[in-house]
Amino acid sequence: MISVRHLSHRYPGARSAHPALDDVDLAISAGRFCAVIGRNGSGKSTLFRILAGALRPSAGEATIADAPCGSARARAAVGVVFQFPALDAVLTVRENLRLFGRLHGLSGKALAARLDAAVAWTRIGDRLDARVGTLSGGQQRQAELAKCLIPAPPVLLLDEPTTGLDPAGRAAFAETLATLRREAGVTLLMTTHVFEEAEPADDVVVLQSGKVIAADAPRALAARLGTEMIVIGCAEPGRLAARLRTGGLAVRATAADVRIPDLDRGRAVGLVSEILDRHGAEIASIAIKQPTLTDAFLALTGDTP
């Protein structure tokens, strides 16, 4: 459904030593959910703009539904949800949806049917006659999603769609996407830097400096760090990490803590006791946890929380 081959892009006049995208490959089958994660500047937005047809790549190819991105056929297959809703704040939700439908050539009963169907997938049905400017951020995002569903696209591209939403709004939006995927079979590609939002994805692609540095299921990425890890909070992570390394432990210091990954289940308990005996005076907190996608990202990129 979505195919990217040897995709590269460098912005004219860019001072960066590396391109915005560097030989990126990506394949997403119909009905799957792919999350693209990375820090700001990793290339997520550039990839999104190319897929949405808003930017022509410097090299390589990107297709949706076997059509080049940006072509009429590809645009007809895609609904695009940007970081911030593109709705008229003065108009009501219903008026926005009708206007968008007319722009897609719909009218009369056909438009009414599409509007009802799109609203049914979202949580905006009780606010159709409210002006968009009076809605909360979460409600505006639901209205934006309903707008994108008017043409019934088989593919949804979402660029950090929960930016600015509170936890309740993010959870509601995630549930709506899960329903769409489960009941309508919509193919989803979402960029995000909130890694918890990528946990339900079938596939996660990690971008760094324009390159794909990892691509796998979320659990598989987390499993690279073992079944358990120890996280130690302390005032001087670098100093404590150096001492632990002299004892033969593979550790990584971040700005806030020391992490000991790749532990077999059951080993961590005894190791915690040993560490507290030797370095207890330096430790503010210590915990055993199962690695998450966030932990995997930090280990892959070498970044700190």
From TrEMBL:
Keywords: ATP-binding, Hydrolase, Nodulation, Nucleotide-binding, Transport. Residues 2-234 form the ABC transporter domain. The keyword Hydrolase applies. The keyword Nucleotide-binding applies. Its EC number is 3.6.3.25. It comes from the Bacteria. It holds the Pfam family ABC_tran. PROSITE patterns: ABC_TRANSPORTER_2. It is an enzyme of class 3 (hydrolase). One of its GO terms (molecular function) is ATP hydrolysis activity. PANTHER family: ABC TRANSPORTER ATP-BINDING PROTEIN, ABC TRANSPORTER ATP-BINDING PROTEIN NATA. Belongs to the ABC transporter superfamily. This is ABC transporter component. It comes from uncultured Alphaproteobacteria bacterium.
